[in-house]
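Methods — Computational structure assignment.
A single polypeptide chain was analysed. Its primary sequence is given first, followed by the predicted tertiary structure written as structure tokens.
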Amino acid sequence: MTGETAGGRADAAAGDASRGPQDRRDERDERDARNAQDWRGWRAAMAEALYGPGGFYRRPEGPAGHFRTSVHASPLFAWAVARLLCRVDEALDRPPRLDFVDMAAGRGELAAGVLAALPEPVAARTRVCAVEIADRPAGLDPRIEWLPEPPPGARGLLFANEWLDNVPLDVAEVDAAGAARLVLVAPDGTERLGPPVAGADAAWLARWWPLPAEEGRRAEIGHPRDTAWAGAVASLERGLAVAVDYAHTAHARPAYGTLTGFREGRETAPVPDGSCDLTAHVALDACALPGGRVLTQRDALRALGLTGARPPLALASTDPAAYVRALARAGEAAELTAAGGLGDFGWLLQPVGRGTAGLLDDLFTGLTAPAAPSVSADPADPAASSSLFVDVADDEEQ
């Protein structure tokens, strides 16, 4: 022990002796107040960790540096969204200005992909808006508007891919007495139970995610997402709003919730310090407004022409290069529609405005019908045939 350290300790001991009981009580109260501020509900913790100064979604690498969405899996996803936009355009009688609004745009990957995939006559009258809190990335197509909020009065397609799962929300857990209580979290991710769930939180749970009186059961309280989705839909004057996310519905809620973290491509414990993504699956049925419909991504993309079926073997003899390209596209389409993976994501489709009540029927007529045989379609041509690929008999694949 050095003389300096010993002297410092002696000074501290002398200071302690000079403080009276009231001083020590004041220090304890200040310390308790500081500790109490460290514990808060998950909704507040997520909001700061994801979107506050230095938050995860303000980091320069963007979401793609930590996880892979359908947008990053294949350009065929942007092709399918472009084709959906073209169908909405037809349903709206081809307005002079057609809007495509990309919610939670990341670094603009989907907005740029859709714009590139649109036929030129449609692209020429399409306003593409990327909605994102992060700064506009360098090199983004100058035709894409970069906005902090969805533009009011849009006519066309509002598309929110993996946005709602990052809308902050609180978590409830059942205690030993069978009561649902808010879960509080410290900056290091440590949790403890807080006050009983009450008010709007309790009403939402009772309606959409009732918890049994079984200790440890958990639920994410989703009404902030319902409100966020309703606000986004309200920005559309006429057209279609689509939310795509990993989701659950009332008949299959997870027993212990889904809150988790992602960092550098790996799932990790959820820690609200800005170092990782914080996400929870979405109760899409609760978000749906009157007239909305929930499909799986598999069904939605198949209706838009992506089946994942392999090209016919005969093409390998007549046009080997085309066969290889079609085979690669088939693999990408299969990933986007795979059971147990991206194909299980939910698509919430919400028609908006006058004369759109039958829009979903028009868009997804023949949802379960066989794909039309075509192998010549270009993924950048949304006006192409209803399928990129055709299936072949197993014995032909050898």
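Note: DSSP finds 14 helices and 17 strands in the chain.
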